[in-house]
Design a protein that fits this description.
mainly alpha; Ferritin; elongated; Ferritin-like_SF
């Protein structure tokens, strides 16, 4: 595949989503270690695995466009995980505080996916993958909001 501006734009958008998934996976794994609630741990583990699957799908699409996928998340994601450490240390209700941060992270993911979606209008295969991932992220956001109400 030739390197065109359109191809580079597609790769750049995929890279952004890839990094967002690395951040989300790391965030879920971090939060998982901070809770004692086994049901919550299991759910967080499932979300981390799901984000790993998303990253693998995006990695595959980047490679199909003759580009090398990024291998780690963003500085913003690192900072958010640092804030999670501080907040969980200072909070009286750790699970609620952790879920609040999951909500923040998922809202950021939804925004990222929605902003990148139009970049794939000329590639139905990628658009279908990204739309499916967005739907799953929105579902996770709704679930984590419900979990916060229960905890």
């Amino acid at each position: 595949m030739k390197t065109t501006q359109s191809n580079q734009d597609t790769v750049n958008a995929l890279q952004e989503l890839l990094q967002k998934n690395y951040d989300a996976e790391a965030g879920y794994k971090q939060v998982m270690t901070k809770t004692e609630n086994q049901h919550l741990k299991n759910w967080l583990q499932q979300k981390a695995l799901q984000r790993n699957t998303f990253a693998t799908e995006l990695d595959h699409q980047i490679r199909k466009h003759n580009a090398e996928p990024k291998t780690d998340g963003t500085l913003k994601g690192d900072l958010h995980r640092g804030w999670i450490n501080i907040k969980s240390t200072l909070s009286k209700d750790t699970d609620e505080a952790l879920l609040e941060e999951c909500i923040r992270g998922e809202k950021a993911s939804v925004e990222e996916y929605e902003s990148q979606l139009e970049n794939f209008n000329n590639n139905p295969e990628i658009k279908t993958i990204v739309q499916s991932q967005l739907t799953t992220v929105k579902s996770a956001l709704n679930t984590v909001k419900k979990l916060e109400d229960i905890v």
